[in-house]
Amino acid sequence: NSTCRIISDSPVEIYSISGKLIEALDGSDGWTPGINLPSGIYLVRTKDGKQCRKAVLLR
Length: 59
Prior knowledge:
about 50% strand, globular
């Protein structure tokens, strides 16, 4: 399994392309997708008081 290192001072949320919350992380954590998580496109969102950042992950 691969691991994705996400560095952020704010909480990070990972969503499926359909909008389902897959995982919520506390700041800089490594995310290891579970073996039952299918290949696909996942959205990463982090938000602090002033801005929201988004990224796309391909598995």
